[in-house]
Amino acid sequence: MNSLSVKHLLGIKYLTRDDIELIFATADEFKEVLSRKIKKVPSLRDTTVVNLFFENSTRTRISFELAEKRLSADIINFSSSASSVKKGETLIDTVRNILSMKVDMIVMRHPAPGAPVFLSRHVEASIINAGDGTNEHPTQALLDAFSIREKLGAVEGKKVAIIGDIRHSRVALSNILLLKKMNAEVMVVGPPTLIPNYIESLGVRVEYDVAAALRWCDAANLLRIQLERQEIQYFPSMREYSLYFGINKKLLDDLDKEILIMHPGPINRGVEVTSEVADSKHSIILDQVENGVAVRMAVLYLLSGNRMN
Amino acid sequence: MQPRLILDNKKLNLTINRLCYQLIENHKDFSSTAIIGIQPRGVHLADRINKRLKEITGLEIEYGLLDISFYRDDYRHAEKKIEPKPTTIRFSTEGKKVVLIDDVLFSGRTVRAAMEALLDHGRPSKVELLVLVDRRFTREYPIQPDYVGKAVDSLTTERVKVEWKETQGTDQIWLVAAKTDRI
């Protein structure tokens, strides 16, 4: 088993456990490449990648761009704010025009859930989902689990609490799907209004008490409150949210064990996590960012191998 | 075609011994030499040579393994996917005399990729190539070995099968007709 079962990375939903393990094993080797003085390999020198971003991004976009450059790919960057999308062009037309210039792979972020799946039915290029609305963000889940594996030795059997805006978070959904495929235990924590109904059907526990969740877990993945996706008010005030669900030093000091504090970024300091915790030794937030490049290199490399077969 | 035994256990050990003495002749105290095995198939031979050199000379020689998956020119064309393996070069190859080690030299594509990969770890003063089996007349690149265990004339359709004690329980090298896994 040394190639992926898929041609696109549209979501964790479509991956097998073998695929995930292959991505991790490949990312291990890319991590070694990134520790060298010359951090570049020629694997994708015959490949052109377009980064299509219809939604804002800092980390994911830079991380993908760096991963592509470290693999020697040619890159085109596209952001909808500075493009003809503003003039009324449809998604398929935009992409077909770009592809007619001989582009092999598309990294895509879009506010509409399912946009990458839709596109994959209409174009030949390999598509990597870099976040589609509230649906999935597969590379984030892969790098989160890769970081857990690196710090705790394995993903299987580990207890992970995902805390925050579960309802609007694509990171939460991709993480739940991936962690369950890897046989980890998952708990979601947040105000009842931000926990989707029937989430238990994904095989996760639900908890409303943050202190209890921290006592249970080996790693806590904190999510940002996605105000831009909230059409109504889900809780009285940010201050109240922070009081009940924010992670502070006292909560961690009260534990009789050490847990990992993770965050996919961007952090709202003082809301879901205090600065003291975000900058503490428990926090692996910057390790996650570092691992993101290696994991994305692995995904690009493995999908490019499937392109010609 | 019946599989033909090229080297048996005893001859293989003699050959490895001879290769070590040839290296000693050219590298003397190995003070600026690094031995690098090419992943995955050059590893067993490189391990043996490294161990034997240490027994003979008593010297600690810089030793590492090099994975070339990301440097191959046939990754997207290969029928069988290449699985990346660890690279363990914990030293700079800058100014070193590097001895690359692989089991079988066939098209020369692996060695070409290995040289490209090697340059990402520094600029060696010299690169030499040691192979256990040199399949002559099958090269696709202008690459020749400096140290040869055994030169073999074979058809391109034939295959050289190397078995190691570490994995197959016995040291043997066979020449087999293509598409036969059993010998």
Could you explain the architecture of this structure?
By secondary structure, chain A is α/β, with parallel strands linked by helices. Chain A contains eleven helices and nine strands. Chain A has two domains: 12-135 and 289-307, Aspartate/ornithine carbamoyltransferase (Rossmann fold, 3-Layer(aba) Sandwich); 138-285, Rossmann fold, CATH 3.40.50.1370. Helices cover 39% and strands 15% of the residues of chain A. Chain A is globular. The model of chain A has no long low-confidence stretch (mean pLDDT 93). Chain B has 183 residues and is α/β, with parallel strands linked by helices. Chain B contains four helices and eight strands; from the N terminus they run βαβαββαβββαβ. Chain B has helices at residues 9-27, 43-57, 109-119, 165-168, and strands at 4-7, 33-38, 62-66, 97-105, 126-136, 147-153, 159-163, 172-176. In chain B, helix 3 links the parallel strand 4 (97-105) and strand 5 (126-136). The relative contact order of chain B is 0.19.
Brief summary:
The complex is a heterodimer of chains A (309) and B (183). By secondary structure, chain A is an alpha/beta fold.
Structural class of chain B: alpha/beta
> How many separate helices of chain A?
11
Q: Describe the sheet with the most strands of chain B.
A: 5 strands, parallel
Return the string of H and E elements of chain B: EHEHEEHEEEHE
Order of strands in the sheet with most strands of chain A:
7-6-5-8-9
At the fold tier of CATH, the topology name of the largest domain in chain A is Rossmann fold
- CATH superfamily of the largest domain in chain A, by name, is Aspartate/ornithine carbamoyltransferase
What is the residue-averaged pLDDT of chain A?
Answer: 93
What's the average pLDDT of chain B? Answer: 90
Strand content of chain A: 5-15%
Strand content of chain B: 25-35%
SS-derived structural category of chain A: alpha/beta
Radius of gyration of chain A, Cα only, in angstroms?
A: 19 Å
Span between N and C termini of chain A? 15 Å
Provide the CATH top-level class of the largest domain in chain A.
Alpha Beta
Helix content of chain B: 25-40%
